[in-house]
Amino acid sequence: MTLTPEKQTPTRRARRDSGAPPTPPDGAVSAPQEAETAPPPVGASPQVTRAQQLREDAAAFAALAGRRARAVAAVVRPVGWVILASAVVLWVVSTMLGWEEVMIAAAVLTAVVLISLVFLFGRTTYDVELDLTRSHVVVGERAVGALTLTNSTGRAILPSQVVLPVGSGRGIFQVPRLAPGAAHEELFAIPTSARGVLAVGPVSVLRGDPLGLFERTHDRRQAVDLYVHPRTASLEGLSLGHLRDLEGLPSQHLARDDVSFHALREYQPGDDLRHVHWKSTARVGSVMVRQYEETRRSHFVVGLSTHPDEYRVADEFELAISVAGSIGLRALRDSRTLDARVQKGALRSQSGRRFLDELSALEHSRPREGGIVALAGAIAAHAPQAAVVVLVTGSKTDSNDLRLACSRIPFGVRVLAVVADTRVDAPALRRIGDADVLTLGALDQLGGAVRKVLS
């Protein structure tokens, strides 16, 4: 009998040298190795992926079809929709009833539509130049401009129309046939009857049929903003407030370092040794320092309330804007630091033109943003070092609210409140606390009223 040799278990050293995994001891159960989890293959659920792809393709096709449909609908004018609907109805009626007269009418309308479509085709590649001589005007002035169209192509361009939108309206110019290299110029004047910012343009080249069924436009130039400034009064010869700087008047607050000398006092820890008065120190026997009165820069603040419930009519709001603009311009001409604020925040007032541009675009604020009292609180928080504060509001502002608003201005600041009331024939001056209150009915009353306040 042939004996099979027993299989010897390799020693631990031999297993370590060969790199084989260690053998568990007798009686021990080896733990199963964790199976590596491979990431799920892409496309494991082909039906779901295919459905998603179909939905995405359908959404993209619907968006493209919607854009094309809107583009086609924009070409058809209201009269064109009526003619198209009439043609469809006549064709349906002639087919169902067999009436030859109705069929002839449907054919005529269809021929009119097809002939009108021919007018949409053609070259409109003009070089357009829009020139506004003045982009900033005052209410009542005319803004004059020129529109130049040049044919820079090598072929003639058939007659067409050019549309120039101005605010909510538009102007239409007839352009004749232009030979290669020819130019055509149109002059225009824009009347301004109200304050605001008007968008002039974009210039559009219009092609359409004589019946007005279809119309195709091509924008050739971006819009230009036309600022219509509010009316303002010059206020010549008036100086509003005090200059509290090197050449001005000091305040009643004491400071350790300034330009207006007040008195001498004994030295306290923390005082600057540069302000020690040595002659008095030698005479008295203790260290004496100079004390100064605090001076302020010429910081002028104009607060214009835009709350709609504070104005009786729209003319009062326009009068308030004109008053604020007039006082702000006077402050800028006096080289003052101007801070103009409304309920929505600060207005840019680095220069007179920028300040008037901000007033041109001003509108009523939301009622939840507060009225004159909230505006005064914002001024006190953002401009505590102001020298003069002018609050402008409407005739519906309550006297208690006006008194509360003036009381929120920091102590020591001169306050002037102006109430716009178009029912007043002559300006009126009264006092509410420490503030002067002016009531005006027209802009030309502002100069005399301010002189009365300063006198």
From TrEMBL:
Disordered: annotated segments: 1-46
Presence of keyword Coiled coil: no
Segments traversing the membrane: 74-97, 103-122
Keywords, in A-Z order: Membrane, Transmembrane, Transmembrane helix
Record domain DUF58: where: 264-419
One Pfam family from the record: DUF58
Name of this chain's protein: DUF58 domain-containing protein
Lineage, highest ranks first: Bacteria, Bacillati, Actinomycetota, Actinomycetes, Micrococcales
